[in-house]
Amino acid sequence: MILLNTDFVIAYFDVKHTYHNRAIKLIRNNTESDFAISNLVKQELATVSCLRFGYTEAKKTIKSVDFFDPKNIFIRGDDTKRVWDLYFKQSTRMSFIDASNIYLSKKLNLKIASFDKVYPNSILVS
Fold first, then answer.
1. pLDDT digit string (tens) for 10-39?
2. Sign of the CA dihedral running 65, 70, 42, 89
3. What's the order of all strands across the beta sheet hosting 111-113?
4. Is 70 strand, coil or helix?
5. Of 23, 118, 119, 121, which residue has the fewest beta carbons closer than 10 angstroms?
């Protein structure tokens, strides 16, 4: 299963994005894979796409995520505490959302669809 990250979703739907073609290729190379998205990534996607494209386009982007038919994963309770622990232990410039994706990747054995450099290559989908 592949966990979608905000930057990947934006690159996939924004034809002008630097990584748009790479995002398309990644999906083509993984047509047999199932996808997942966390509640935190979906919230970040709403914020980032609103700032980048405006509210109307942001709503379309959020609804377009359904194209991937992703399993929705919710981070709450003990998982939230563990993500905070990971976030405070890290020594790189990782966002809380990135820490949550790494946590989910390890917990659920997921690969991550992202172009961010904070993720180890071992958990990125190619």
1. 999 999 999 999 999 999 999 899 999 999
2. negative
3. 71-73, 35-38, 2-4, 111-113
4. coil
5. 121
